[in-house]
Please model this.
Amino acid sequence: MKRPTTAPRPALAPIVADAVYSKRLLCASLQWEHRTFRHAVQEGLRIIAFGKQRYVLGRDVLSFFETLADRQAAGGGGEE
Model:
C-alpha cells in the first residue's frame, strides 16, 4: 500500500536583526497566518507602512519576542 505523501515544510530562515521583512515574507518565515500577524501588531509588534505594503524590521521582531518572553517569565500573561 502506498503511503500518502505530504509536501515537506520549508526550512525556516532565522530572523536577522538588520533585515527588513515584508508582511508576507515574515508570515511565511514564522508560519503565521494573517490573524496571527494582526494579533502580534496589537500586542506591540512595530510595523512600517509604505503605500499598501507593511514591513517589519528584523530587530523589531526579535525585540517583540524578547518582550513576550519577559512577560511570560514574570507571569504577566501570554499564551502557552
Residues 20-73 form one domain. Residues 11 and 29 are 9 Å apart (CA to CA). The mean pLDDT is 89. The radius of gyration is 15 Å.
